[in-house]
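User: Please predict the structure of the protein below. I'd like the answer in structure-token form so I can feed it into my own downstream comparison script.

Assistant: Understood. Taking the following sequence of 321 residues as input:
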Amino acid sequence: MRSRESELVTERGTIPEAGAPIIQTAGLHKRFGNIRALEDVDLDVQPGVTGLIGANGAGKTTLIRLVLGLIRPTYGQISVFGTPVAEDPAGLRERIGYMPENKCLPLDQTAADFVAYAAELGGIPPVEARRRASETLFLVGLHEERFRHLGDFSTGMQQRVKLAQSIVHDPELVLLDEPASGLDPAGRDQMLELIARFREFGMNVLFSSHILDDIERTCDWVVMLDAGRLIHSAPLDPPGEGDRLSVEVFGDPGPLVDALTRQGVSVTVDGAVVTVVTRSEDAFAVMRDALESSGSSVRRLGTSLSRLEDVLVAAAREANV
């Protein structure tokens, strides 16, 4: 029997042309009475894992529901895989997986029954649906628990079930609405690791979150909405930038900067945050050696502690001028 991983790669069906946008909008507006949810959004979502960032009420969930065809634009256009959503919403939904943010699981069903039912809704025959449900639950770490009732599951386990039902029918695009919401740090790490693995399966992902670190850890591209307007859409790491790592240190960053400079790498300093960019070396190894030789203590460490935040704050400021 083939593994679940191999099926996700080989049974996907027709994949859009390389480089073609997965989602496109033009002049997209959505209002609910006097409330402006989206205003004049022109957006191309590229293949890969895209982060959709914005505060609560920015329009993230509205955009996801428009992609699914669950609601219609007030005016403007939205297409998925080159097909206008209004022309074939049901057909497009067969190619899309959706993990909603809110609680929506039938607590009196087992995980196996629920995910198998989701597979049948995706057009998979019942016997095959049971097999896929079992293998998908194994993929998300719930193989032993699959026959327990969902009402007995923790929040983290329920999130994994929602993730499983969103991918059980092998979609080409997965829409994840705040997938790490309500999880403890360990559960959040595990969820982000699962999402990052979707690249291995050839899945495209639109990942909604209001937490910058989640986006930086998982995504290739970032889109930011603010009060219903698109204010930023760009690759998360510009091509040619090199390997980048930042640390925030306790106390004076000077000794760390000196140690990094002696290694001949590019260093920038913003308060207590020290960022190193390398083109031919492992930035983590460079930073590790410099921290050891300088005796500096680390408060935080990441691929970029301030870069994405700075970009988005600047974009929001420019949009509100």
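That's the full token string. The chain has three domains: 1-95+172-236, 105-170, 243-319.
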